[in-house]
Amino acid sequence: MGYITLNSAGNGIVEMVFDQPGSSVNTMGMEYDAAMKAAVAELQGMVAAGGVTGVYLRSGKPGQFFAGGDIKEMLESDLNPPPGRKQELFEGILAAKAPLRTLETLGVPVAVGINGAALGGGFEIALACHFRIALPGVDVGLPEAQIGLMPGAGGVVRTTRLIGLQEAITLISQGARIKSEKAVEKGLLHEIVADEAAMRERAHAWLLANPGAKQPWDTEGYRIPGGGPEHKANQGLMMLGPVNVMNQTRGLMPAQKAIFAAVADCARVDFDTAQKIEARYFLSLLLDQTARNMMTAFFVQMNAITKGASRPAGIARRKVKTLGILGAGQMGAGIAYAAARKGIVAILKDVDLAAAERGKDYARQACAKNKRMSDAEREALLGLIRTTDSYPDLAGCDAVIEAVFERRDIKAAVTREVEAVLGHEALLASNTSALPITELAEASVRPANFIGMHFFSPADKMPLVEIICGEQTGDAALAAAFDLAQQLGKTPIVVNDAPGFFTTRVIGKTVSQGAQMVLEGIDPVLIEAAARANGSPVGPLAAIDEVSQETAYRNGLQMKADVEARGETWQEQPAGELVRRMVEDFGRKGKRFGAGYYEYPQGGKKRIWPGLGQHFAPNGFRTLPFEDLKDRLVFAQCIEAVRAMQEGVITSAADGNIGSIMGIGFPAQTGGVFQCINAWGLQRFLARARELAGRYGADFEPPRLLIEKAERGEPFR
Amino acid sequence: MAHDALIFDAIRTPRGRGKAGGALYEVKPIDLLVDLMEAMKERNALDTSRVEDLIIACGEPVGEQGQDIARTAVTYSSWGEATAGVQIHRYCAGGLDAVNMAAAKVMAGTEDLVAAGGVESMSRLGIGASGGAQGDPWVAMRTLFVSQGVGADLVATLNGITREDVDRYALMSQQRAAAARAEGRFRSLLPVRDMNGVTILDHDELIRPATTPEDLARLKPSFAQFGEWGQDELLKFRYPQIEVVEHVHTPGNSSGIVDGAGLVLIGNERIGRELGLKPRARIVATALVGTEPTIMLEGPAPATRKALARAGLKLDDIDLFELNEAFAAVVLRYQALLGIPDDRINVNGGAIAMGHPIGATGAMILGTLLDELERRGLRRGLCTLCAGGGIGIATIIERV
After folding, report:
1. E strands in A589-678
2. What is the distance between the alpha carbons of residues A389 and A353, in angstroms, rounded to a whole number?
C-alpha cells in the first residue's frame, strides 16, 4: 500500500486517501512529496481522460487527518549548506507545493473531509481544496511559528488570500490551533459535519452540485479581503505591525518577522509569484539557528518529556481523584483552582476555616472573571474545592501537596500530622522552591512516598512543575508525581535533591549577576535592557522587586543560618549584600511595599529608583560593553546549569531546557539553558565563558563537564 | 579647471498653511514653481534658453508632484524647451541639495547656468503620500524606523533638553520671524498670484506674533502617541540606556506644515557677465553626511564640520548660521555641540514659526540667509538641514 491511493467512488468521484504506511499519523516529508507528486499526476491523467466529476480528499487514519511537516527531517538537514545546495532546497520547496496548485486547478471540484487534527502541512493541503469540511471540535491551524518556522506549502499565500492580511498575520504568527467551528467562523473552513459518513456524503453531494468550482483567487475580479498592503484600511497594520513584532519578540524571533513580511509581500503579487516568495522566506527559516533551537526544545524535547522520558518505566499510570492541599496561601489556592479545573476534588486545608475560605476565594474570583463559564459550570467547579481546618478530612486523598510557609519546622509538623491520617499508598509532595527534600523527608514515616513538587507562581497559570526526588523517594512516588503534574495540565521536569534544585539555583545566578552589576556601578537601566535584549521576559532587578527584597533578604538569612547550623562558614554574596542594604538601609522592600529597585508612581509607569545610581555610582555610571552585560546574564545561567548536570542534579538536557524556559523565563528563542550552549557552538561558548571569567569572576569559570563536552564536540542532548 | 559657482538670484514663495483652508491650498504645486520661474525670468531679464538644467526637489513626488515636475514646469512655463529639468529627492535636504548639485555642475564646468530649488504642496500631498520602501514591513523591521518626531524627542531625552528649553526656543523663533516679516527682511519673498495677476498670498501665513509662553506650554506632545504605539520601545534596540522617552515636542516647537517653493539661479562668472547677471554670493563648499537613522536628526553638526573642513574654514569664520528648525531640540543640540550662540543662528526665525515645505525648504532658507548677510553687511553664512534616514547637508556661501 502506498501513502496515497486513488479510488473510484461512483458518480465519477475519485477519492484520494492519505494513509502513510508504518506511521500512526500522516506527515509531510520526502515520502509525502513523492507520493503526492505521483498521485496528482495520475489524477491529472484521469481528468484529461474524462469522466471525473470531482475529487474527495480524506485521511485513511481513523480520527487522524494530518500531523504536519516532518520536523526530524528538517532538524537533520544541514544548517549551512553550500550555495548550490540552497538552490536545490529552494527548488525542492517549490516542487513540494506544486502538486497542491495542480490539485486546485484540475478543472474539477475538490473537497476535503477533515476527520482529525489538521495542522501545519495537513492544513495547507486542506486549503488547496475548494470545499473544506470538518468534524466538530477538531484542531486545525498553522502552528509552525511556535517552533520557529512558517508554513511553506502555500499556507501563507492561501490564508492571506482567504481571510486577509490582518487575520492571516495573527493566525500564522501566533501559530494558534483553533477548533473547526472557529475556523468556519473565520472563513477557513466551510462547514462542520457530524461524523465521517455524513462528511463523505456531504462532500460527494457538493462535488456533484459544483462542477465549476474554483478557488476565490482564481476567480475573475478577485480581491484580497480587506485589501492589500497599500489599502488605506491596512495602513495602521503596515506601520505598527512591524514595530509590534520587533518589540514583542525583541527582534529575536525570525519566524515572526518572516511571517509578517511574507504575508505583506505575497499580497502584492500574483499567486504563482507569491508561492516563490513564500518559499524563500520558508527556506531562510529552515536554515536558521533559532528555528533549530525551537524545533529541538518545543517539538522534539517537549514531546519526549510529555511521553514520559523522565518517568520511571513500567509503573502503571495513576489518576488522582482527591487531592489534599495543605496551606491555602497563594500557592495552595492556585494549586486548588488548577486541580478543580481538571475535575479533581481539592481539599484545601489551613489552620482555620476562614483562612481556607480565603484561599478558595482565589478560585471564586478567577471563575467570576471567566465570562465563558456558565453559572452551572462555575458552581460545579467551586464545588470541587472543599475547605477544612481538620486533618481527618484529608484521610481519603490519593495525594497531598503541602504548600505551607517555607520553614522547615512548619513543614515537618504538617508532614507528621497529615501522614497520620493518610493511606499508605498516598503521595505526599512538598511544594518548595528551595528547601532540600531529603531533609524535609526526615519528618516523614514513609519517605519513599515523599517527593518535592515545585510549582511556580501563579500556580494555576504557570505551565511547569519541577519534581524533586529526595534520597529515599521511590520510583512509584516519582511516577505518581509525574502523572499528577500532567493531570494538572503541567509539564513536569525531574531533578535530584540539592540546594536550590535546578530552576532556583539557575535563576539565582542571573539575579546575582544583576545585583553584582548594580554594585559595580553599572546603570540599572542598562542591566534591565540587557536582559530584555536577551529575550528575558523580566530583568533581574524587576524579578526581585516582584518576589520582594524582603523575601529575598529573609531567605538569605535562613540560608545563612542553615549553613552556620551545619558548622560551615557562610560566604556573603553580592546579591545578599544588595538586598540587605535595600531592606535595612533604604527601606525599599519590594513592589508590594511600593518601593524596590524601581519606583512605582501612582498611575504612572515604574521607573528605576535614582537612588541606585546615587548610592552605587556616586561619580557616574561605569561603562561596560553592552554585549558583556547581556552575556553575563545568560552565561551565568547556562554555566550553572552545566554545574547542576555535572553534580547529577539534572540528568536530561531536555528537562533543563524546558524547565528553564517555562519555569524561570530563560529566553525561549535559545531553546533553553543547554541548547543555548549548543547554538553558540561548544568551543565558542567555552572561549567566551573563559573571557567572562577573566573579567567578571568565578561564576563564569567553565565546569569540567563543559570542557569535556567541548573537547569531544558533543552537544548537550 | 574649477569654476566658482555664483548665486545670481534666490527667491521663494510665501509659505501658506499646509492644509485645506490654507491660502495656497487652491494653488497647484506646478503653479507655485512656475510663478517663481516666471518671476526669475522677469526680474533678471533672463534668457532662459541659456539655463541648461532645472533641478527641483520634492518630498512627495507623486500625483500632481509626480514624475519629473521640473521638466513639466519648463514646458508649461514661458521658459521655452532648452532647459532639461529633473526632479530629485533627498527628504528635507532636497531643496538645498538641488542647489548643491547645480553648484557642482557649474564648478565642474559641465554646465554654465542652472536653476535649482524645490516645491511642496503639503496641503494637497501630505507627508507619506508617495509611500516609500521604508514602509515595507521587512525593511522597517531591519532598519528600526521610528517617526522623526520621536527621534526629536529622543534627541531631547538623551541630551537633557527639557520642554521648557524647546518652548523657549520656539517662542524666540516666533518673535524673530514676526519681527523680520514686520520689517520686510524677507526680500527674497515674492507673492503668489493667480492667472489674472491677482495676489493669492504675499506673506508667510503661519507666523503667530502673539504667541505667549503659556500658549506653548498648553500644547500636547505630538509624538507621545507614536511612542505608545511601540516606537519608544523600538528605539531602545539602539538606545538601551533610555528608560522613558520624554515627549517634549508639540506643534508649537516643531516645524509647521506648509506649502511653498524656492528657486536659486547658479552659474559661472563668464555666463554672468555675458547675460548681465549680478552675482550675490559664491558657494564655498557643500557637504553631505549620513548618520544614525533611528534618531535621524544628527546630521547637521557633522555636515557643518565637513563643509568647514572642505572650505578650510573654522566655525568663527561663519557669520550667520541657518539650521532648519525641524524640531527645536535639533537646533539646541546643534548649538550645544558647536558652541553657536543664539544671535548667530536662525536670526529671522525659521520653520517653527514659518513652516517647512519639505522639498522646498533648503532653497528657501539659503535665500533667507543671503538676504540677511546682505542686510547686515556680513560675509559668510552656513545653511544646514537634517533629513530623513539620518542625512545631513550643509552649504557655505560667501558674499562677493
Report:
1. 598-599, 607-608
2. 5
Length of chain B: 400
CA distance A229 to chain B (A): 9
pLDDT per residue as tens digits for the range B275-293: 999 999 999 999 999 999 9
- Closest Cα of chain A to B230: distance in Å? 6
Inter-chain touch B137–A532, beta carbons under 8 Å: no
Is-contact A522 A624, C-beta < 8 A? yes
Could you tell me if A668 and A657 are in contact, meaning their C-beta atoms sit under 8 angstroms apart? no
C-beta of residue B86 within 8 angstroms of C-beta of residue B68: yes
- Whether B176 and B348 have beta carbons less than 8 Å apart is answered as yes
Q: Mention every residue, 6+ apart, whose C-beta is less than 8 A from residue A412.
A: A440, A442, A443
* Residue A612 parent element (H or E): helix A610-616
B171 alpha-carbon distance from chain centroid = 20
ipTM beyond 0.85? yes
Beta carbons of A465 and A458 less than 8 angstroms apart: no
Residues in B closer than 8 angstroms to A237, CB to CB, are none
Instruction: Say yes or no: A312 contacts chain B, CB-CB below 8 A.
Output: no
Q: Which of B134, B138, B145, B229 would best serve as a mutation to test chain A binding (most A beta carbons within 10 A)?
A: B138
By Cβ distance, the residue of A239, A607, A626 closest to B135 is A239
Q: How many residues does chain A have?
A: 717
Residue (of B28, B35, B30) closest to B13 by Cα position: B35
Rounded CA-CA distance B263/B33 in Å is 8
Q: Are B12 and B363 in contact (CB under 8 A)?
A: yes
Q: Which of residues 143-172 of A touch B (CB under 8 A)?
A: none
Q: Structurally, what CATH architecture does the domain formed by A504-712 represent? A: Orthogonal Bundle (1.10)
> Which residue, chain included where needed, has cell 465521517?
A196
Residue ranges of the domains in chain A?
4-287, 322-498, 504-712
In 3D space, the residue among A480, A462, A611 whose CA is nearest the CA of residue A541 turns out to be: A611
Amino acid at A57: L
Residues of chain A with pLDDT under 50: none
Q: Which residue in B132, B172, B220, B101 sits closest to B328, CA to CA?
A: B172
Average pLDDT, chain A: 95
Cell numbers given for B361:
525648504
Assess whether A124 carries a catalytic annotation. Answer: yes
Instruction: Note whether A532 contacts B236, CB cutoff 8 Å.
Output: yes
Q: CA B226, CA B223: separation in Å to the nearest integer? A: 5
Contact indicator for A199, A135 with CB cutoff of 8 Å = yes
Q: Closest Cα to residue A202, out of A212, A186, A194?
A: A194
- The span from the CA of A450 to the CA of B201, in Å, is 90
B32 closest CA partner among B190, B186, B192, B189: B192
Q: Domain A4-287 in CATH: superfamily?
A: 2-enoyl-CoA Hydratase; Chain A, domain 1 (3.90.226.10)
Find chain A residues with C-beta within 8 A of B231's C-beta: 243
β-pair partners for B53: B114
> Which strand (E) or helix (H) includes residue A386?
strand A385-388
Contact residues, chain B, for A243 at CB < 8 Å: 140, 229-231, 233-234
* CA of B145 vs chain A CAs: smallest distance (Å): 8
Q: Which residue type, as a one-letter code, is found at position B94?
A: G
Nearest CA in chain B to A598: B243
Rounded Cα distance between A619 and B91, Å, is 42
Q: What is the pLDDT of residues A12-33, one digit of tens each?
A: 999 999 999 998 889 988 899 9
Ordered alpha helix ranges (H), chain B: 29-43, 69-76, 94-108, 137-143, 148-158, 163-182, 213-218, 224-226, 232-234, 269-275, 300-311, 328-338, 351-354, 361-376
**What is the share, in percent, of chain B residues with pLDDT greater than 90?**
99
CATH number at A322-498: 3.40.50.720
